[in-house]
Amino acid sequence: MSELSGLQIFKYLPAAKKAEHTNCKECGCPTCMAFGLKLAKHQVEIEKCPYAPKELIDLYNQNSIEPQKTVEICGVKVGGENVLFRHEKTFINRTAISVVIDTSKDDWKEKLDKVLNFEIKRVNEILKIDFVILKNYSGTLPNRTILYEDFLKLPLIKIENNDFKLVSQNLIKMREKAILEKDEKYSDPVYVYFKHTDDLDTLCAEASYYICKYANMLVFEDFDENLISVLLTLRQNIFTDPQKPLQVEPKLYEFNNPDENSIIFMTTNFALTYFAVANELESLSVPSYLLVVPSDGMSVLTAWSAEKFTTKIVAKTIEKFGLRDKVKTRKIIIPGLLAHMKEEMEEEIKDYKIIVGTINAYEISDFVKNLN
To answer: Domains in the chain, please, with CATH?
Structure first.
């Protein structure tokens, strides 16, 4: 069931039917159309219109049901999704990843420390296990942990990973029932439980699929750093909001202990662009600077076409970070995709020579070797 639009609502109102009480303003809106638009955005209550037909009230109430409930565990929100596909709107809460630890086993403290301290950094974000479920435990709970018996009391739907085909079919069915039909029997978040297995390749493949379709949480009896690293990386990609690009802080970054005579590269603050260039500069034996220009998290050409990467913005960035005082070098290497801006930049920033760099980040090493 898709969301009701203002126009769909308007068709049920007096003005659309040219009936009595057309645009009566009793709802507080100037017209029935205005009321319909506000109602679609949940900015007004349907009871404000005394002439709304029962058919519209029933349809609106059914449409207003929350497709999937949200459950909070150790500060992590699970569920709450309202679309099947990210491009329809966005996904709300990432698939939570959790590990079960049985404290009746001798090595449980060591395992707990290992799980809680595990983290990886990717695209300027620290990724880690969301929380730990403790079995047979008594005492003060460490941070990011929950008792097994308390976890079982939560309004969650459990699916054991015994048959991949069946599990995948059930996950899709449950999400479609919740989103498309708003069936309350399927409105609780769903988690997949993974028992011990030595086949990590199959485990990784199946868990990766469930992150995409449509587990709200994955619970593992085992903990393997390589497996979790893959899953956290995939999750970050899937649940990044396409309407909000990942960004890094605009500033002057340093690589390999640069001095006042080191070379200067320039790029936008789109996270993927930055890390692609930064990884190459880190691997060089040559000290360098990277001037990151604020561009609303857009990639190089996108920022240029949206006028978020202009010569004036570059000039202001140079001034803001005191580049002239920090570095005597008067040459800046710009991305190859912005070769057409070379003369314009040199006109705006008269004391700098602009050098056109590479289009691809992996070409930077050879470019620097041949740089005079």
So the answer is: 6-63 (1.10.15.40), 70-238 (3.20.20.20), 252-369 (3.40.50.11600)
Q: Mean pLDDT for each consecutive 10-residue tract of the chain (372 residues)?
A: 80 93 94 93 92 92 86 96 82 95 95 96 88 96 97 98 97 94 92 96 97 97 96 91 79 95 95 91 93 93 94 95 92 95 94 95 93 74
- Beta strands 263-268 and 252-255: pairing type? unpaired
| Helix-helix angle 200-212:225-238, to 10 degrees | 20
- C-alpha distances (whole Å) from 266 to each of 145, 311, 338, 345, 358 are 44, 12, 11, 12, 11
What is the secondary structure of 210-250 as a DSSP string? HHHTT-SEEEESS--HHHHHHHHHHHHHHTS-TTS--B---
- What 3-state DSSP class applies to 369? helix
Main-chain phi, psi angles of 213, to 5 degrees: -150, 110
C-alpha pair distances (Å), 15 with each of 20, 33, 40, 41, 47: 8, 8, 17, 19, 17
Picking from 68, 290, 93, the residue whose alpha carbon sits closest to that of residue 181 is 68
Amino acid in position 85: F
- For 106, 114, 196, 259, 282, the CA distances from 111, given in Å and listed in that order, are 10, 5, 15, 45, 34
Q: What are phi and psi of 135, to 5 degrees?
A: -100, 145
Kindly state the DSSP code that residue 82 receives in the 8-state scheme.
-
Query: Residue 172 corresponds to which amino acid?
Result: I
**In sequence order, what are the beta bridge partners of 288?**
255, 263
